[in-house]
Every structure is written in structure tokens, then in C-alpha cells.
Amino acid sequence: MSRKIILLIIASIIGLIALSYIQARLIKNTYSLRKEAFTDNASNTVSKIGSYGSPIDSIFDAISDTFVKDLDRYNLNKISSEQLLNRLQTISDSLNPRFIKEYEKEIDFKDLGYNLKYHRQLKNLVILDSLKTDTIFKRKKREKGLKLIGYDFESNSDLHLGTSTWETNRTFEEINEGKTEKISYHIVFETSNYINIDDWEKIILNEMRSLLIFSFCIFLFVIGLFYYSIKNLITQKKIADIKTDFVNNITHELKTPLSTLALATKILKKEEHQSPMIVSTIGTIERQNIRLQKLIDQVLNNSLGYKELSLEKQPVQSVDFISEILNDFEVSHKEEVSLGKSISTKNLELSIDKFYTTTAIVNILENAVKYGANKIEVATKNDRDYWKIKIKDNGIGISKKNQKLVFNKFYRAENKDVHNVKGLGLGLYYSHQIIKAHNGSIKVESEKGKGTTFTIALPLK
Ligand code: ATP
Ligand code: MG
């Protein structure tokens, strides 16, 4: 496989990985947002439970009333902190079944579509008075707090609804040795609220199902497209290689009859007392034969790119050069076309590779005949630093779309108008490479059905 294709595959794979990464990030973000919305909704539902005056509210009141009285006794050192907490646990446990019953009633009524369980734990309990701050309970990190009310389940930090703090000033009267004493202290009662939803991840993923399926399909589609393109590219490359092989083989096969022809012309040339017409015809045959041989060598050596063309530049007189090409062309195509010439008579000295430049011009002239012209007009012009040749034909023309492609290697426009026109699609490609190697330019203007004009510009210096 060529380096270009390997680089392309690597670049595409990197692109695919980057795309997948972005996609995964987007899905993760969507998941987080959905989870947030889901827990918000659940926490809203939970916070509405136990509104003022409801049976649940009265359960909370019962717990706090008993608890505060115990706290007074603790404050008077009548019970220890363990006893206080044990009593809190006992009263909570005894009221919990009632709480769960009422809670289930409210939850059923809300018809959420999932099972929402809730519990509240004691996180911190501190009492303060003018003399001291007494921390009775403090939940340690990663340790379970004291469960106050609700269901038993592992508290999952993912579904922690936050903490709520109940702070109040408490004043009570104590009769001590016949005297009534007023005692005040401040209570800080901090609780953590947790919810539990069976398979909550599944519920969120289920909500995201269409997005996940769509993303997966898009991903598969991109992979498929990528695979198809690369496969296509490799096939194209193989076809191009086969074409090149084919051209090389066929040109090789052509060499033998051409050498025989060259030998035959040589023998004919040796013959004395020939009419000038025959001498000139043999000259044409010989020149064309040499050209053909060189052309074949050129294909065989595969020196197709203009950078690899090694030019042998020589001084050439412009008028003589073009006249010779046009005369040879006329001789070989007398019956098919009429050739109009308007050659500027001023001979300019060009520095060009005569063989290659002839090939470039002849390719264009031959195309005109191949593609339907019966009239060709060739004009040359000395334009400042350039010598310009304009070749205009009245053939089938080339559509705008195809004009951009005609200089491509192996390109042949589909010609429904001309049947059985054979070619390799190399002629204009060569011409273009040759003119580029001379630092010149070649352009095409055409109108479908009317004809085509090629203009070659070769620099004078
Ligand atoms: P080859 O020259 O290698 O034998 P070819 O003539 O098909 O084959 P090119 O000379 O490169 O290849 O031309 C490419 C295509 O451009 C042709 O197939 C033809 O469709 C179109 N074309 C070229 N010259 C003309 C023209 N003068 N008029 C109309 N179409 C043209
Ligand atoms: Mg051609």
C-alpha cells in the first residue's frame, strides 16, 4: 500500500477516535444532566411529604417532643449521652412502622412509576449554653449515622439529598430544693437525607435509550463510510496500477514492428534517383517513426510527471518549428481536415526540447481530428515574453465540467457523439506535463457542439 493511503488511514482513525471521544463526553454529560433532573424530581417529591398537619408531621412532632424532654434530663446529667441516643433510637424505631405506612400512602398517591425509598440519619447533635459546647453525636466520615426514620438501605452518596439543620433555643423549668430554676440551652440537630430508587441507573439509561441507539447507529454509519472509502481508494489504486502495467506491456509489444519499419525506411532512403515527392514522403515516414519510438520509450520509462521529464533544450526558430509540425500533420491528415494557418512571420529563437514540444502540439492537433473536427485553424502570436500557439477546431467540443478534467492522467470524456474513438486518455496529460516542464501554460476553451480552442504559451527566455 502506498504511503499516502497509509497516512490517510492513520489520519482517519485519529479522526474517528477524536469523534468517538467527543460523542462519549456528550453522552456522559447528558447522563449527568438527566441524573440531576431525576434526583431533583425525587427530592422535590420527598420534600413535599410530611407537610404541616399531616400524619407524618405528627410523627415527627412526637419524636421531637420526647427527644427534647430527654435532652433536658441529659442537660441535668440525669442520663448519659449513650442513654439519650438509645432513647432517641428507641422512640424513632417504635414510630417508624407508622411513618412507613403513611409514607407509602403518600408515595402511592403520587404514582411516580418507580420505587422511591427514603431515610433520615442523624449527622450531628450539639448543645450549647453560656458555659460550654457539648457535641453529643458527630458522624464520622464514611460511617453510618444514626438512622432516625425511614427505610433501611445502604446510604448511597450518589443519591444524597443534602442535610437539614434544626436549630432552636430551649428553656425549661427545674425545681431544685424547692426553688424553680429556669435553664436555657441551644440545640443544633443536623440530619442527612438519603433516597434509594431500585435500579435508578437503568431508569436513566432507559430514558436515554433513543439517544444511545441513535449515537450508536451514527457511529456504525461513520465506521461503515470510512471502511467503504478506504476500500474504494485501495481498489482505485489497484486499477490505476493495472492500467499502468497494461500501458507498459502494450508499448513494449509495439516496439518490434516499429524497429522493422525503421529498418525498411532506411533501405528505401538508400535507393537513388527517387522523385522529390517520394523523398519527402520517406522523410515524413522516418520522422514520424522516430517520434513514435521515442513516445513509446517515454511511456515505457514511465517518465510521466513533469518533474521527472529531462528536457534537452536547444535553440529553435519558431516559424520553422511550427511549419514543420503543421506540414507533417497536413500530409498525414489531408483527407480528414482542412488546416488553416496564420503564422506570424517573425522568427523567434525559442529554447525548447524540440521532441517533447512537438509531441505536446501534435497531441492537440490529433485530438481535434479524433473528436469530430473537419477544420482546424492554427495561429501563432508573439506576445511580450511568450510565444503563443492557438489551435482552434470545430469538433464536438468539451463540456464545462469536463474541461477541468481533460489534463488528468487517463481521463477520457464519455463521447456519445463519436463512436469507436480509441485512446488512453494520456495525450493531453503529456502535453500539459511537457508545457509545465518548459514553465509555460496550456489552457482550454470550448463550447459543447461548437468546437475547442487550446492555447499554449511558451516563455521566450
Ligand atoms: P490518447 O490521446 O491518450 O490516445 P484521448 O485522446 O482519449 O487518448 P486525451 O488526448 O488526453 O486522451 O484527451 C482526453 C479527453 O478529452 C478525450 O477523451 C476527449 O473526450 C476530450 N478531448 C480532448 N481534445 C478534444 C477536442 N479537441 N474536442 C473534443 N474533446 C476533446
Ligand atoms: Mg488524445
Q: What does the secondary structure layout of this molecule look like, with pairings?
A:
Layout: H1 3-48, H2 55-75, H3 81-110, E1 116-128, E2 133-138, E3 146-150, E4 160-176, E5 179-197, H4 200-207, H5 209-270, H6 276-300, E6 314-317, H7 318-332, E7 338-342, E8 349-352, H8 354-370, E9 375-383, E10 386-393, H9 400-403, H10 427-437, E11 441-447, E12 451-459
Parallel strand pairs: 7-9
Antiparallel strand pairs: 1-2, 1-3, 1-5, 4-5, 6-8, 9-10, 10-12, 11-12
Helix pairs in contact: 1-5, 2-3, 5-6, 7-8, 8-10
Bound molecules: adenosine-5'-triphosphate and magnesium ion.
Residues 363, 367-368, 370-371, 393, 395-398, 406, 411-413, 415, 423-429, 452 line the site of adenosine-5'-triphosphate.
In short:
InterPro entries: HATPase_C_sf, HATPase_dom, His_kinase_dom, HisK_dim/P_dom, HisK_dim/P_sf, Sensor_HK_Regulatory, Sig_transdc_His_kin-like_C. With 461 residues, the protein is an alpha+beta fold.
Topology as H/E string? HHHEEEEEHHHEHEEHEEHHEE
Bound molecules: adenosine-5'-triphosphate, magnesium ion
Total number of domains: 3
* Shape field: rod-shaped
Catalytic activity: ATP + protein L-histidine = ADP + protein N-phospho-L-histidine
Keywords: Kinase, Membrane, Phosphoprotein, Transferase, Transmembrane, Transmembrane helix, Two-component regulatory system
Pfam family, one: HisKA
GO molecular function: kinase activity
